[in-house]
UniProtKB/TrEMBL annotation:
Keyword Transmembrane helix attributed: yes
Record field: transmembrane: 21-38
Keywords annotated in UniProt: Membrane, Transmembrane, Transmembrane helix
Protein name according to UniProt: Transposase family protein
Domain of life: Bacteria
Originating organism: Roseibium aggregatum (strain ATCC 25650 / DSM 13394 / JCM 20685 / NBRC 16684 / NCIMB 2208 / IAM 12614 / B1) (Stappia aggregata)
């Protein structure tokens, strides 16, 4: 998890509803599970 926290957070203040590490982690899990889009 600490390696994911090393990425700079380039989101605007409005876009920081969720923790960046959680967003990256769930995105990786979704891709590995076969997700092809965010919808």
């Amino acid at each position: 998890m600490s390696c994911l926290a090393a990425f700079p957070d380039r989101r605007r203040a409005e876009g920081k509803m969720y923790d960046q590490v959680g967003v990256i982690l769930f995105s990786i899990i979704a891709i590995l599970s076969g997700a092809r889009s965010y919808r």
